[in-house]
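Q: Is it fine to ask for two folds in a single conversation?
A: Yes, each is treated on its own. Send the first.
Q: Here.
A: Result:
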Amino acid sequence: MNAAVLKPLFATTIRDPRMGAEQVIALRWPVQALWIALSLISVVTSALVAALVQAAPLPEGDLGRMLEASPVYSSPLLFAGMQWARAVFSVFMLFWIGRALGGRGTVPDVLAVVTLLQAVSFVLVAGFTVLGLFIPFVSSLGLLVFLVWWMWAVSNMLDVAHAFDSPLKAFGVMIVAIFGVLIGLSIIMGVIGGIAGGFTGAI
């Protein structure tokens, strides 16, 4: 992975997510390298989000107290771990659900497109955030544009990874996977909370 390859790949993915997915799958990067890249992107994204939350003043009332108690504010390391787990779960959920619906993608294929999507998304969001520091309305407008682009990109990139020939089916896979990841993380956090509570009670 080097700048000479990544820059045109990023630009292609922004303009044409289908072509970006085809190119990143064709590169056949080592699976271990992709897992490392996905983990690194997740941690860096978590650090950026936590820094922004920490820098901004807390709102008053219940919203402020809820935000203060959330991992992103009170425990950045836990938040980073959650984001890493979310990224890993997403790969497997998108693979399993896609195969259940007739897709032919492999774990490396799905991992490649998810990693690329995460990397491009980070660059776009970071860019809009920096612009928002100088032109406030750009940040809000940019994030709205990004959300629309992201849904379009995910549908088309998953369609390529699973060879569905139906972006609508790929969009359905994305929706089901989102709920699956949320449920999975909720169960894990519940178990961790129960274990922590048991240790606290024993002490």
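Q: Second one now.
A: Result:
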Amino acid sequence: MTSTPLWVPLVVAGVGVVATLVAGTVGALITQRWSDRRETVAWERERQRERESWAREDEARTFEHRRQAYVEFYEAVKALARTAYDHCYGFTEEPELKEGWQSDAFAKLTQLQFYADRAVAAAASAAYSAAWSWGQYGVHDAPDDPSFHERQQRFDEAELEMLLLMRQSLSIPEADLALPPPGYSYPGNQGGDEGSDDES
């Protein structure tokens, strides 16, 4: 009967133990690597979600600043035109406009130009210029002066153009694009005059 030397089972057992240890270590390393990769992907996904959320918040803040700048300038330029109208109609006692009568509208225009796109900024500047020149060059208490109506018409057209672009920029929907915006009537509409109802 041949006997197996004692060292053979020991070597076999040792190889088995080493193989088990190596397999366990390699398995743990592979599992850890997959886990790290999953965490990296999840972390990157979370960071991307945060970046998108911040971008949406920034966009919403910018939109709100833009909307506020549009509304404030629109009110200021309407007040500027009202001052010009009152001056030329003689509703003011002083024959000259007060110094700085245009300052508020100009400050609001500057703020609007920071947030507005180019088309709106150009239209707002044109509306401001039309209102300013209406008052600056208008003759006090002379509503029959032909230049009064020319300047009024110039402002009405510039204001309408600005209003349409502002509404478009703010994505304010129009139910019927053939209709004028509130406060206006297009030439040829039944029962309406040209220009704004405020200065007509």
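Q: Anything structural to flag on that second result?
A: Two points. Residues 63-170 form one domain. The two ends are 127 Å apart (CA to CA).
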